[in-house]
Amino acid sequence: MRCRSNRTGNLRHVSFWVMALLGLGRGCPVHAEEDWLSRSRAILDAVGKQPKPAWLENQPSVSDIRKQAMEALQAAQKPPVQAPITSITSGQAGFGSLSGYGSDSGLTADSDRKTFVIYASTSLGEAGLLDILGDAAARDDVLVVFRGVKPGQKLQQFVREIHALVRRFGEDKQPHVIIDPNRFRHAGVTVAPTLTLEEDGKVLAKVQGITGIEWLKSKTDGKLGNGKQDEGNPSAGGVGNVGKQPNGEIKTLDFGTQGPIREIAEVDLIEEMQRRVSQIDWATKKREALARFWEHAEFYELPEAAENRERLIDPSVTAPRDVIAPDGTLIVRAGQQINPLDRLPFTQRLVVFDATSPAQVEFALRLGREAAPRRVTYIATRLDRESGWEGLAKIETALNAPVFLLTPDLRDRFQLERSPCMVEAKGKAFTVREYKVGKVDEGVDRINQGQPANLQGKVAP
Question: Which residues does 402 contact at the CB level (< 8 Å), separation at least 6?
């Protein structure tokens, strides 16, 4: 019974912040929408995995400037060069979701099915490419692969060039074509054309100079997986190393060169990406990313208060229906009014101000000092874009505390309308006090110099 009691108590405790999460910020007691019950149950079902919302913890739901900047920096970091695989059949130049040389673009998924892979190059000329694409057309067991793009050529340009040839075979007969340098590496392909028979990423058979699928099929029928060593000169059409050995290892049947071959005109796409990445000045990229952060930072400004004003925000919510926990425990009865402050005290003071206004910065410091020993969180509605990080550092030095950015969520939850203002709990409601700032005194000069303001005096209640 004790275990059930603890669980019930935990669910009841959680129900209060669930209700508050759904209803806070709508002003006076509110009735939620018709889907209130389903949303409540969804949250309750995940109660064991979800933390309390940030505004009920010691941290408000504010935007951490440094976290945003770190995200901007991470976007400018040197990216890892991964194996790109691009589908050309669709005519799109974006990298596909394939992974490794074992993936076949657009081919029917069948773990027991072998795939003929034709390694091609534009060095074969348009006629040679059309012959290859014709062999692969309307076949789900044939894949045409290119190593990359020609030197100096853009990926989209290359894709359009090959796709123009692919389209000649009509929508129903288009061959499967991709760019995958990893396949070339894995199969040891250095010339074009090269034809292989592959299964689960393993090369069972290989021949250079011809693309006759039926020819390779006839040479491998009955010879794969028998573990015997066939006689014959591979260059003369004999069989070299047989595919599956008795110990389970795979050795490629190599038929050598059976026809004319060409050098591969395209560069390895991975090597080309590595070359381009190595030419980028990443230190400069990081500096530019930080500079752009202030250009694109989104501020949610509030008009300046024209008079002193105090408002009370009731965070209560009213349940339109019963809320029942998964174990059948009644958490909230329909019509019951819930106030999260009954169970979760809000002990800090939020100080909201315009960081571009020296008078508001001065006033924010006074509001913060008078809150001692309670914790104070400073929230800026905007910052000086031109002064950037240096300006932020000066403000934080003056306040001797970090500064966060106002978010729409926090603004709406506490119905913030003017700045400067402060928010704190008073009984079972939140008090929002707006202040009309007076003249700036000598303390502002110290703020502008990045020094503690050392201001005197108290803020009128």
Answer: 378, 396
